[in-house]
Amino acid sequence: MGPTNLNPVTPVYPSQFTSPWRMKDGTEVTIRPVRAEDEPLMVKFHETLSDRTVYLRYFASLSLSSRTAHERLARICVSDYEHEMVLVAEYAEYRDRQTGELHILGVGRFSKLRADREAEIAVVVSDPYQHRGLGTELLRRLIHIARERKLCRIVAEMLRDNLAMQVIFRNLGFRLHLSGDSASVQAVLDL
Ligand SMILES: CC(C)(COP(=O)(O)OP(=O)(O)OC[C@H]1O[C@@H](n2cnc3c(N)ncnc32)[C@H](O)[C@@H]1OP(=O)(O)O)[C@@H](O)C(=O)NCCC(=O)NCCS
């Protein structure tokens, strides 16, 4: 018997989820699934997040170095597009003159939970680009993908004082309720 191929199959990049989008101020972005090569762009993205934004997203003051640690970012950027779907919004017009790199302005993701047809969703937008509709659009697209993937339910958790997120989730049809310890709010959307 020949040797068994233990290499996992390379996931196919789901390019059908890539398309342009215009923010409320007219800025053109491309929203697309993350790629392994995005790690340096993700480091730069994290450099643009204020302490408040980090706290609201991670419920703690995670340092820049821990957020941009290779092990962490590799886990996010090298996606199987099956258990986890990460979308990034890339600034289409601005290109760094020296490196030719584009910039990431927002990241949204859903990760399947142990109950296979349920996923947890979260989003974060670079501070200078907040309030232009991007957070809502990233969530809208992730919900669309979750529906296509036949997931049954999406859940999210946010701090109680994260009013922006609560408004957005409610507008997207989620039900909100206080968690047991009242420190956070849970959002649930049945698909
Ligand atoms: C929450 C977050 C993702 C929203 O992204 P965004 O692109 O700024 O949000 P949008 O522009 O799509 O906002 C849509 C709506 O949210 C509401 N909203 C936004 N900011 C608000 C605020 N400070 N207070 C109350 N409502 C607010 C408004 O109704 C707004 O609609 P409008 O602009 O038509 O009035 C972004 O602010 C962020 O990254 N916050 C920190 C990280 C975080 O909280 N992540 C969530 C963890 S689950």
What descriptors fit this protein?
alpha+beta; Aminopeptidase; eight-stranded mixed β-sheet; binds coenzyme A; 28% strand; globular; 191 residues; 6 helices
What can you tell me about this protein's structure?
With 191 residues, this protein is an alpha+beta fold. It has a single domain (15-151), classed as Gcn5-related N-acetyltransferase (GNAT) (Aminopeptidase, 3-Layer(aba) Sandwich). The chain contains six helices and eight strands, in the order E-E-H-H-H-H-E-E-E-H-E-H-E-E. Strands 1-2-3-4-5-6-8-7 form an eight-stranded mixed beta sheet, sandwiched between helices. Strand 4 and strand 5 form a beta hairpin. It is globular, with a radius of gyration of 17 Å. The mean pLDDT is 90. Coenzyme A (COA) binds at residues 53, 56-57, 122-125, 130-136, 156, 158, 162-165, 167-168. The site of coenzyme A (COA) has 22 residues, from helix 2, strand 5, helix 5, strand 6 and helix 6.
Give a brief outline of the structure.
This protein is 28% helix and 28% strand. By secondary structure, it is an alpha+beta fold. It has one domain (15-151): Gcn5-related N-acetyltransferase (GNAT) (Aminopeptidase).
Give the quaternary arrangement of the chains. Answer: single chain
Name the average pLDDT. Answer: 90
What's the CATH first level? Alpha Beta
The count of strands amounts to 8
Query: Whole-Å distance between the termini?
Result: 46 Å
Number of domains: 1
Major β-sheet, in short? 8 strands, mixed
Helical residues, percent: 25-40%
